[in-house]
């Protein structure tokens, strides 16, 4: 972890976080949207330099928390899941592999807390052009 100093003074956690967000926000990856009958989804991957600001233990974050990490999305998105091997298999319709011991083992040791899954109501921006009250 790089610690910056200004005028010989060590920066506070919040000052350092702000600098890191400005430095790494261009490296945040936003997936294309994907859909089911009810919701649209996307995943957002945080770069290495911002992962240290994720909550510990990892949990579902409120909107002000994920926006506070530099994530920029239009209104209506909610963080609903933390990504892991089990989720990769589910998203790719490979859930039958979950019955195997190896996959169950991998889902325990290889979570990806830096991949945040979001959803919002399908056609949100059309239904609520001025936001949801």
UniProtKB/TrEMBL annotation:
BP term (GO), one: cell division
SMART domains: CKS
Gene3D superfamilies named in the record: Cyclin-dependent kinase, regulatory subunit
InterPro entries: Cyclin-dep_kinase_reg-sub, Cyclin-dep_kinase_reg-sub_sf
Record Pfam families: CKS
Superkingdom classification of source: Eukaryota
GO molecular function, one term: cyclin-dependent protein serine/threonine kinase regulator activity
Keyword terms, alphabetized: Cell cycle, Cell division, Kinase, Membrane, Transferase, Transmembrane, Transmembrane helix
Record's keyword annotation contains Kinase: yes
Entries under SUPFAM superfamilies matching the protein: Cell cycle regulatory proteins
Keyword Coiled coil found: no
Residue ranges of the TM segments: 88-110
Family, as annotated: Belongs to the CKS family.
Task of the protein: Binds to the catalytic subunit of the cyclin dependent kinases and is essential for their biological function.
Protein's recorded name: Cyclin-dependent kinases regulatory subunit
Organism, scientific name: Zancudomyces culisetae
